[in-house]
Amino acid sequence: MQAIQLENYGIDNLKLTEVPIPSIGENEVLVKTTAASLQYLDLLLTENTAGFNVPLPFIPVSEGVGVVESVGKNVTQWKKGDRVLIPFITRWEAGQITPYHNALRTGMQTSGTLAEFTIQPENTLVRTPENLTDEEAAALPVAGLTAWASLVTQANIKAGQTILVQGSGGVSLFALQIAKTFGLKVIATTGSKEKEQKLKNLGADEVINYKEIPEWSNEVKRLNNGIGVDVTLDVGGNETINQSILSVKEHGYVGLIGFMSGSQLTFNIVPLIMNYIRLQGYSVGNAQELKELVNAIEKNNLKPVIDSIYGIDQTQEAFLKLKSGKAFGKVVIKF
Questions:
Q1: 236 and 124 fall within a common domain
Q2: Number of domains in the chain
Q3: How far does CA 241 lie from the centroid of its chain?
Q4: Which candidate among 22, 162, 219, 302 keeps its CA 20 to 30 Å from the CA of 67?
Q5: Are residues 309 and 324 in the same domain?
Q6: Residue 260 pLDDT level (bands cut at 50, 70, 90)
Q7: Which DSSP symbol is given to 87?
């Protein structure tokens, strides 16, 4: 089968090659990949800049969708031709994460989605929403699910609250769309004048340019009647965490879901303590939560924001687009 295999670290080393089709187990499903979606994590793993040290050779990328090609003899939930979302944390069906669940992640401990076929467990596959193309649906298993689980399960968002979404990556744009569906006021940040209007078109009530206003927590409060927001998802890490903490109100929720500006955090603990702020690390979600997201997408006809679609032979170009920081929404690779 065709696959993008990393023989050495670096975008230049993402090569299209032929590898054996993996063998299927009794309780497993062989999925023919139709589209994969890129995460910032995929870039870090490919360039080996975050200390994960994934062993080589390796097939990268953690998010994708496909069609069932064949099933193991004990599989009852799926049949050939079913459209499915490929799980990131492949053992996590429901409930809280455990060491057992957390041991295997697609594109990290197991081969990623940039392969013509992948082997998946029966119980954590989730059906693809009927209203989405495969390219759109490829954005759900990691980016979409991270936003959904963080906001709905962890932050327990409610109509009438206010959320601050940061930037225009996949998780942040999903958070914006989900928040509007739930009836929240949305304040968004961006460093691009061009993206300001795009965020408003997507539903943002207010937009702050963080390059023009570096201390953007003050502007967040000004735009929210002098008080902090109920929820924000911090995607930047080191350079944004202090402003995130200062942007939320008493008992506010700060979801730590990214580290684009660095993973070693230094922040003032005083406002965290004095304002009873909840700082929560979170990484994606489980299959049950993904099913809930699928239902919400179908009922509200939500459409993931796709920046660009590349062919499998354009994988290097796709990674470079992601790395440029110019994408508005998801960068997708189509098989």
A1: no
A2: 2
A3: 19
A4: 302
A5: yes
A6: low
A7: P
